[in-house]
């Protein structure tokens, strides 16, 4: 093992799934015997952080902006509009929304990059490396200021603008956009839709990074290093993807996939005890279904027509027990309408519940954390994506045969939802395919945790190693796709043929 390292993790407090992923990495690094410090710059007042980092040896440094008292007065951020808005899937509006997100980082980032006292304290720890997630890029500039090598990390499966910096080619044809089919079934309009979505996704991601860059420029009072150059210095790019679960995409060796790292312990599933309360609930009927739409979009805020559809589905399946994660579990209106086979729960022990054999189907929004958990549990899933990467996650899991990609607007159709769930419970092929995927994930030849640790230690030992990053990754659009050469090869014979034809016409006329 490499000698004990001093690792700094910049963990921006903004999105819960991002925070949870980086917190897990902190525990894993500390478990390896390395010294870990986690700097947590607060961009919102997130309250549910207790217990995310379990290793007591990890030093946590919470960093607050000057306006934090105002942030605490704000309601916890949710995306209520994601329920019935078609605009959340619109790539053009998504591009505009990305720039707005970056503005929420401004106060904390400016204070952090100007805070000489903080910089002096961090420098005193003699860190070997800084882990920075690419979603919020100020950590790269902090690392540059402290003259510490930065290692790029992503809590999602992919982030095309950064993927390209590390040499991953375009995913056109590899990953379908919403509404598209995969080759060989994909026709012209599928390919056109893929190009349209990819183009505006790239614009949106660049807009968010450029907006952050402008904030950083304001903070340090000069023109900073280009964010592309700074990020690309990392010898590896650690991403929350799994080659046996995700769409098959060509990735260079410097892109390290550690998806499933939160689920596995020494190659096997972590054993989690189920609370006694749920033992009684699961024994009431032969089949049980768990419904959860995550934490960012709340179930009790769904439109009334969606609630009516789900209630109708409950009534049509009286032989099934439903455990419904419903944040306002005491809401009188909902409690007065649910049948006896339904339990509303503000909080549910999701990992433990998914591993119980009495649970037959998981109805989920398709967040990456839930997608990973249900894939490793071997349970069929009804995927109801609401926004962001959830649409890709739903398609990604459904292609393995153990899940169904379900349109969120069909939640209003209780009969349809009941029919689909009944089929998933009664048809053994869903469970068979889900369990087959589980076996593959549990027997993958490279354990995600070891893959992460070994690449982290390698990156700390060789922080400037760049041989795995192809030079073409920073070429412009035209040279990257050799469009000038293609145009030349088309134009040259066309010109010669045209000139020859013109000359023959002149001669014989």
Overview of this protein structure:
By secondary structure, this protein is α/β, with parallel strands linked by helices. It has three domains: 6-265 and 447-472, 3-Layer(aba) Sandwich (Rossmann fold), CATH 3.40.50; 268-442, Rossmann fold; 475-508. Helix content is 45%, strand content 13%. The protein has helices spanning 16-31, 68-73, 91-102, 106-114, 116-123, 138-146, 160-165, 188-220, 227-232, 276-282, 304-316, 332-337, 350-354, 368-377, 390-398, 414-426, 428-442, 448-461, 477-480, 483-508, and strands at residues 6-10, 35-41, 59-63, 129-133, 150-154, 237-239, 255-257, 264-265, 268-269, 287-292, 320-325, 342-345, 359-364, 381-383, 403-405. The strands form three sheets. It has a seven-stranded parallel beta sheet with strand order 3-2-1-4-5-6-7, sandwiched between helices. Helix 6 (138-146) links the parallel strand 4 (129-133) and strand 5. Helix 3 (91-102) packs parallel to helix 8 (188-220) and helix 4 crosses helix 8. It starts with 5 loop residues before the first strand and ends with a helix.
């Amino acid at each position: 093992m490499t000698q004990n390292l001093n690792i700094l993790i910049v963990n921006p407090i903004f999105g819960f799934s991002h925070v949870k992923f980086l917190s897990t990495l902190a525990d894993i690094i500390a478990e390896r015997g390395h010294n870990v410090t986690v700097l947590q710059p607060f961009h919102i007042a997130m309250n549910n952080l207790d217990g995310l980092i379990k290793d007591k040896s990890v030093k946590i440094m919470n960093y607050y902006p000057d306006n934090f008292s105002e942030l605490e007065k704000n309601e916890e951020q949710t995306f209520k509009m994601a329920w019935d808005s078609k605009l959340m899937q619109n790539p053009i509006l998504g591009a505009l929304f990305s720039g707005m997100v970056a503005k929420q980082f401004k106060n904390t980032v400016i204070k952090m990059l100007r805070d000489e006292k903080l910089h002096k304290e961090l420098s005193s720890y003699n860190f070997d490396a800084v882990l920075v997630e690419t979603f919020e890029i100020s950590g790269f500039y902090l690392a540059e200021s402290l003259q510490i090598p930065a290692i790029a990390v992503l809590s999602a499966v992919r982030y095309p603008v950064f993927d390209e910096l590390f040499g991953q080619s375009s995913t056109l044809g590899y990953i379908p956009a919403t509404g598209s089919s995969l080759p060989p079934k994909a026709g012209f309009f599928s390919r056109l839709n893929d190009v349209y979505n990819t183009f505006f996704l790239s614009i949106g991601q660049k807009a968010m990074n450029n907006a952050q860059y402008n904030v950083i420029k304001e903070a340090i009072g000069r023109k900073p290093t280009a964010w592309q150059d700074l990020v690309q210095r990392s010898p590896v790019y650690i991403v929350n993807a799994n080659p046996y679960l995700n769409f098959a995409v060509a990735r260079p060796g410097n892109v390290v996939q550690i998806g499933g790292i939160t689920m596995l312990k020494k190659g096997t599933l972590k054993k989690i005890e189920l609370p006694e309360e749920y033992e009684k609930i699961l024994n009431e009927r032969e089949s049980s279904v768990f419904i959860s739409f995550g934490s960012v979009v709340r179930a009790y805020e769904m439109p009334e027509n969606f609630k009516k559809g789900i209630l109708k589905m409950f009534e049509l399946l009286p032989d099934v027990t439903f455990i419904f994660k419903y944040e306002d579990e005491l809401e009188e209106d909902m409690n007065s309408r649910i049948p006896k086979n339904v339990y509303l729960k503000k909080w549910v022990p999701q990992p433990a519940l998914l591993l119980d054999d009495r649970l037959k189907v998981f109805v989920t929004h398709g967040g990456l954390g839930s997608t990973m958990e249900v894939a490793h549990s071997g349970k069929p899933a009804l995927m109801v994506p609401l926004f962001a990467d959830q649409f890709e996650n739903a398609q990604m899991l459904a292609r393995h045969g153990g899940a169904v990609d379900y349109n969120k607007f069909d939640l209003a159709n209780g009969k349809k939802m009941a029919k689909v769930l009944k089929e998933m419970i009664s048809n053994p092929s869903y469970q068979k395919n889900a369990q087959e995927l589980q076996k593959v994930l549990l027997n993958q030849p490279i354990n995600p945790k070891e893959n992460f640790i070994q690449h982290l230690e390698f990156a700390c030992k060789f922080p400037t190693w760049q041989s795995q990053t192809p030079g073409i990754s920073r070429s412009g659009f035209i040279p990257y796709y050799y469009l000038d050469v293609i145009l030349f090869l088309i134009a040259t014979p066309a010109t010669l043929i045209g000139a020859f034809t013109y000359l023959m016409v002149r001669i014989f006329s």
